Amino acid sequence: MAHTKETRNAVRSSFVYDRLPLEAAADKHSVSYNTVRTWKKRDKKHGDDWDKARAARRMADGSLGEITAIVVEDFSLLFKSVVNDITTGEYDGLKKAAALSQLSDAYVKTMRAAAGGDPKIAKLSVALETVQLLAKHIKDEHPDMLERFTNILDPFGAKVNEVFG
């Protein structure tokens, strides 16, 4: 069964903006899961990576700093817990040293990633945040234009992802 471009855009929007799992987005719009997977894979080949758009959208909902802080805090708590298990567990000296070395390496890599992040996702996040600001402005200042803007927004979101993602 052939689906309209509007249906494809609505499924993508449910996945990216509403953060529905792919299967739930497919069900919501009465499209088979296999069809949606095909759309997602095809779009990625053409520069519209739904997963990157979803990640960027999540970042746009909160600042990059807030997200990084959450990730670093969670990792630090895990790090502390594992170090405690290593120091109080029944490890011989060599195993303990190896475990601490691997854990420290993971910690350094996590901190480096948190400091740098993915520049493409960061750019995409800023672009999507700008689109959100525009949507709010139109809603508040030009409510009569909101429906037209919404019709333009979904395909434009894919274009933003193509350019910045």
Description:
- The structure is a single chain.
- The chain has 165 residues and is mainly α.
- Among the domains are: 5-46; 63-116.
- Helices cover 82% and strands 0% of the residues.
- The mean pLDDT is 77.
Any chance you could write out the topology, listing elements then pairs?
Layout: H1 5-16, H2 22-28, H3 33-45, H4 50-61, H5 64-88, H6 93-116, H7 119-141, H8 146-164
Helix pairs in contact: 1-2, 2-3, 4-7, 5-6, 7-8
By DSSP (H or I, 4+ residues per run), the number of helices equals: 8
The residue-averaged pLDDT reads 77
Helix content: over 70%
Evaluate the radius of gyration.
21 Å
Distance between the termini: 30 Å
Give the helices and strands as they follow along the chain: HHHHHHHH
How large is the share of residues in beta strands? under 5%
Structural class: mainly alpha
Annotation, overall tally of beta strands: 0
